Structures are given as structure tokens and as C-alpha cells.
Amino acid sequence: MRNTYKLYEAFGELIYVIAMADGKIQKEELEVIEKRLSQHPWGKDMKWSFDYEVKKGRDLDELYKKVIYYCETHGPDEEYDFLISVLEEIAKSSAGIDADEQEVMDSFVNDLCKKFSEDISRINTL
User: Fold this and answer.
1) Cα dihedral 73, 77, 79, 85 sign
2) Among 3.30.420, 1.10.3680, 1.20.1250, 1.20.120, what is the CATH number of 4-124?
3) How far apart, in whole angstroms, are the C-alpha atoms of residue 45 and residue 48?
4) Tens digits of per-residue pLDDT, 102-118?
5) 5, 36, 99, 123 - which has most CB atoms within 10 Å?
6) What is residue 102's DSSP assignment?
7) Residues 70-99: pLDDT tens digits?
8) Where are the domains of the chain?
């Protein structure tokens, strides 16, 4: 069974990873996060997860791997489009996208696309 709450918790964690990719969360990034998440039905859950990570300050690489693992377990979901657009907007909000932020976004997209392609291939052979 897919756990919607866990998916949005993972989104909040990845939003934290992207915002911290350049070493700190800038005011402009936080404004985008608050604006975009306030417009989503599960935004409060994503924001709670983001705020939790801000307080904990966990290792970004480990947190990223945790998010990818959950997304792979969760499988395809049209909400990934929302997440990608939020990540891009956060990254662009403060002096454009830097190399670290772009690397995190590219890795996330590539990992998910690979997993989903494999899932579709498997489903098509059933």
C-alpha cells in the first residue's frame, strides 16, 4: 500500500536538500517554499518535514538517498511533476541555479526516470 503522507514527508526532505545544496537556506528560497507549499493540499505536511530537517541538520547525501529509496518504493506518481517544479523554482530563486543545486535536481530526475522506465518495462511484459 502506498503511503501518501510518507511521500509528502519525503518531498519536504528533498526540498530541504535542494535549499541547503549551496550551504545555506536563503531568504528568497524560504519565500518560494512557503508560497508554493501553501498552495498545495499536502503543503503543511511537506513544510513540517522541511522544518524538521532544518532543526536536525542531517547529512544531505544520506537524506537524498533516503528520499530516492522512498520514491522508488512508492513508484510512479504524478505528484513528482509538482516536486520538480518546486525544486527548480527554489534553486532559481536566489542568484540562479548553482552547480550543487543543479546536480541534486539532475540526480533526482535521472534516478526516478530510470526506475520508472524499468517499472514500465516490467509492467508491459506482464
Assistant:
1) positive
2) 1.10.3680
3) 5
4) 888 778 877 866 776 78
5) 36
6) H
7) 888 888 888 888 998 899 888 888 777 778
8) 4-124
